[in-house]
Specification:
Layout (H helix, E strand, L loop, with lengths): L15 H12 L3 H14 L4 H14 L2 H14 L4 H13 L3 H14 L3 H13 L3 H14 L4 H12 L4 H14 L3
């Protein structure tokens, strides 16, 4: 799962021109140029949430996880309950193998805004942490939103195979999965 793409947002800060230039460079694949603009933006406005979010996404995409954590922590200091901050914080913590932190932020993100992305991330993290039953239930919540998502269907089958209910329930889930694509 990839970090959420750069957030455009309204132009309300002196840093917004840099943010927009950063987004343009980021979108065009010029990551070093985007980093310069995003960094200039948060230097101009240290409370620029979108600037820190975009830096976190950029660093995540560049594999610079320690810097991504620093940027998402800075964003969280500005708006700790922002669903996009929570989601990206969970994702970056997961990538950094900080599982308890990832689990905590994924729960908060899914509670704040239960989108398919938030639920899928929570389900993947709970599965990785060994909570197969919770993972199955969370994948099913995501399937309630996106019933035709084959990836979700396959993931719920895998999670189901890790539970105590295992084979019987897995057979039922596989039949549901395969029947929906006939």
């Amino acid at each position: 799962m990839e970090a959420i793409t750069p957030a455009p947002g309204p132009l309300t800060s002196p840093a917004d021109a840099d943010r927009q230039l950063g987004i343009d460079a980021h979108t065009d694949g010029h990551l070093v140029v985007a980093e310069r603009y995003y960094t200039e933006g948060v230097t101009l406005d240290p409370k620029h949430l979108i600037g820190y979010l975009n830096l976190a996404v950029l660093y995540h995409q560049m594999g610079r996880i320690k810097e991504a954590l620093g940027a998402i922590i800075a964003a969280a200091q500005i708006e700790p309950e922002n669903p996009l901050v929570l989601l990206n914080h969970a994702m970056i913590s997961f990538k950094a193998m900080r599982m308890l932190e990832a689990l905590d932020y994924a729960h908060k993100a899914a509670d704040a805004n239960p989108t398919v992305d938030a639920l899928k991330l929570l389900a993947l993290i709970t599965q990785t942490c060994g909570y197969a039953d919770e993972s199955v239930n969370t994948f099913r919540r995501a399937l309630d939103i996106a019933p035709d998502d084959f990836g979700l269907q396959m993931n719920v089958c895998h999670s189901q195979s890790l539970t105590n209910a295992g084979p019987e329930e897995l057979l039922w889930q596989r039949n549901v999965c395969y029947e929906s694509f006939r």
